[in-house]
Write a structure and sequence with these properties.
The chain is an alpha+beta fold. Helices cover 29% and strands 25% of the residues. The strands form 5 sheets. Strands 12-15-14-13-16-17 form a 6-stranded antiparallel barrel. Strands 6-2-1-10-19 form a 5-stranded parallel sheet, sandwiched between helices.
Length: 411
């Protein structure tokens, strides 16, 4: 007789888990509170879906998971990024590799990944049920199934919790899985945002709201020891509260014990130029615009929206003629363009984070099977576990690897 399996949560981890278990002979019921599956997958990678990272050295993969990376050794070993790529290509999704080994569908449409996962569960006869699971059914220390908020009960031999974290609650990630885990006696490591925008002290950021810098370099300094904790190159975005965008989200996962003013962000607006080269460029621009006001002489160098902010921060009178700018003024301007400073005050709320740091304590989960060490027949997969990675496709790979491992072992 086939084992009955319930998977709670139809995100990336839950879908691959349900399909894998069913493919291996289990009778699987997938319970999801939303009417559509994989809502969060739909918005990853700005709707393009950075499905994995084409990094197939196990140690390199683990090194990109700063929180409990070693816990994932078995999960990654059983299902590596090349397995993820082969999985989707077998389901008809053409993939491409971009900068930083990031893998996307050729179509640049996340819906193609979601549709493929849907095909996977349908072709393996997974039964889908819409409902919100609110409790585990546990009798005499034995797991019997789950109950939804409407009182409907579903019985099974094993249950997999794959409900995601607490980020992006509009996609259904509201932390339900943590409550279910607690019912089985599990400890939940304190939740905090990871891969999240940053609030800053300086109010001029709001003047630049919506401005995206495509090719800037950043570094973050810890003022407690004046060490550089992170540097990166790429795209960032100014917002009404501070900064966001890929390099900022990546940086956020390196900031520990956050407190107001501890970290300073320095933006290099012209990373392709050394200070000497930038100074020469400024000299040429000043000569070209010698009779113009300073504020009207920077159009070739900076985005229009940024010019008033840089002029104000430079301290150079906006209507000073370009040919009256002194050597010292020019040098100070060069330094400003290479070291635009912002004081970080906090992370944005967890609801705005891409992933949740914290979750079900990995010490209470068998890393070789994803089964609970506290309650036989209970398994975990994906973001509900206390693991999180840097940007670049690594977090979805965690979902696929843990989901696949749980799917293999819950039967």
């Amino acid at each position: 007789m086939n084992k009955k399996v319930i998977v709670v949560g139809a995100g990336a981890a839950g879908l691959i888990c349900a399909g894998t278990a069913a493919m291996n002979g289990a009778e699987v019921t997938l319970i999801e509170r939303n009417d559509k599956v994989a809502r969060k997958v739909m918005i990853t990678g700005k709707g393009r879906c950075n499905v994995t990272n084409n990094c197939n050295m196990l140690n390199e993969l683990i090194s990109n998971v700063p929180v409990n990376g070693r816990f994932l050794y078995s999960a990654f070993s059983r299902f590596m990024p090349d397995d993820t790529m082969a999985f989707f290509e077998d389901l008809g999704v053409e993939l491409k590799v971009e900068r930083g080994n990031r893998v996307f569908p050729v179509s640049d449409k996340a819906v193609d990944i979601v549709d493929a996962l849907n095909r996977f569960i349908k072709s393996n006869a997974v039964k889908r049920v819409q409902g919100r699971v609110t409790s585990l059914i546990i009798e005499d220390n034995q797991l019997k199934g789950v109950e939804t908020e409407t009182g409907e009960q579903f019985f099974a031999d094993t249950v997999v919790i794959a409900t995601g974290g607490k980020s992006y609650p509009q996609t259904g990630s509201t932390g339900d899985g943590y409550d279910l885990a607690r019912q089985a006696g599990h400890n939940i490591v304190k939740l905090k945002p990871s891969l999240v925008p940053l609030s800053v002290h300086e109010n001029w950021c709001s003047d630049l709201m919506g401005l995206s810098l495509r090719n800037c370099a950043i570094k973050i300094i810890d003022t407690e020891n004046y060490r550089e904790v992170y540097n990166d190159f790429g795209e960032m975005l100014f917002t009404h509260f501070g900064v966001s965008g890929p390099v900022i989200l990546s940086a956020s996962s390196h900031l520990k014990n956050m407190k107001k003013g501890r970290y300073e962000l320095f933006i290099d607006l012209k990373p392709a130029l050394s200070e000497e080269q930038l100074d020469s460029r400024l000299q040429r621009d000043i000569a070209k615009n010698s009779n113009k006001d300073f504020i009207n002489s920077l159009g070739d160098l900076l985005p229009q929206k940024m010019i008033p902010v840089i002029v104000k921060l430079s301290g150079i009178p906006p209507h000073l003629k370009a040919n009256q700018i002194t050597r010292d003024m020019r040098h100070d301007l060069t330094y400003l363009l290479k070291n635009l400073k912002l004081t970080i005050t906090d992370f944005r709320p967890i609801e705005e984070a891409i992933v949740t740091s914290g979750g079900v304590d990995t010490k209470e989960i068998n890393p070789k099977t994803m089964e609970s060490k506290l309650l036989q027949g209970l398994f975990f997969a994906g973001e509900v576990i206390d693991v999180d990675a840097y940007t670049g496709g690594f977090n979805l790979q965690i979902a696929f690897s843990t989901g696949h491992l749980a799917g293999e072992n819950c039967i």
